[in-house]
Amino acid sequence: MADAMRLFQVATDEEIKQGKTTDVYFVRTAQVLKAKNVDKVHVVAEVTAGSLPNEWRWGVLCGIEEVARLFQGCPVDVYAMPEGTVFFSHDHKGFKEPIMFIEGPYGEFCFLETPMLGLVCQSTGVATKSARIRIAAGDKTVIAFGIRRMHPGLAPMLDRASYIGGLDGVSSLIGAEVIGIKPSGTMPHALVIAMGSQVEAWKAFDEVIEPDVPRVCLVDTYLDEKAEAIMAAEALTDHLSAVRLDTPRSRKGDFGEIVREVRWELDVRGYKNVEIFVSGGLEEETVKALGEAGAGAFGVGTSISNAPTVDFALDIVEVEGKLAAKRGKLSGKKQVWRCLSCFVDTVLPFSEPEPKCPKCQGETMSMLKPLIEHGEVVSDLPKAPEIRSRVIEQLRNLPSDAKLT
Asked: Which CATH class is domain 138-305?
């Protein structure tokens, strides 16, 4: 595609599949290998993370479906942990855990390393941050609000990864479409300002928008949040589902105190059924604190969409069936075994039999499953809601001391 024809700076599906988003040194590597007649050399290359951002103890793997599409038609075999797997960077002995390995002629897939890493590094960071927010929020509703902070071409990935990580809904039209759910949202300050009155804006929203959309009134445009919350409750009465506070932390005192004050004033007037929806600069710590203060729902944006990426790396560990690895890496094809009762992982050479759990001596399960065989997708690729349910189940089973560490 010529630059003059590219309206937005986003690579197409075809450009990604063709390796046009790769680093140039892989193209040169392929040229050298072909010139020396070793482009068909058979290798095993594994993907590991030496560490996780911010000293996280675990991550939520995301982007595997896209990896399957990337390698579809390429003459390789790929084993990977299923999408939505809660993974660790190291096993109980301190060995790095592969989340994936690729086996085949290196010259045929080396140019796909860069896009493959891009597909899993960023989406895994977003899914992991979302899972941590999920834990902090408990059973309260959390909606992904972060697409406006990132390139719009990434909106489907950002919302899908946020949802897979455990959030309840997403704000973008395209993200919701990809997931297979309805988009979620409230109303902007712009509606209130354009209407010239908070009450007029709230009533107009109630009159115009389809009835299955919750009536969540934004209550911090002109007046004190408490005053506008009471106004909204009196204006919409039993139609009102929630009031939204979008107060930045730097605007007025303690956000938690504002939430407590609004909760009290709504309750004493008989509006105990009206939730408090909060947004604006939320993090894990603030979500937990505001939930304890009385907030019942959250819109979380930048901290999720701008989540730190997980620095996965691809390294060759076998060449033509012989052990090979650079310094700092462990040679040989491997399998990861997990005790589903204890969440303890063990990394072993691929050919070794299933071990017992080192903690409880119970049965273990292999974590790396066939994804691609000879270029064909052989694994089921579940829909986002199914992956999300699996993630939430794993989060419930995490050891308590690992949940937000």
From this structure: alpha beta
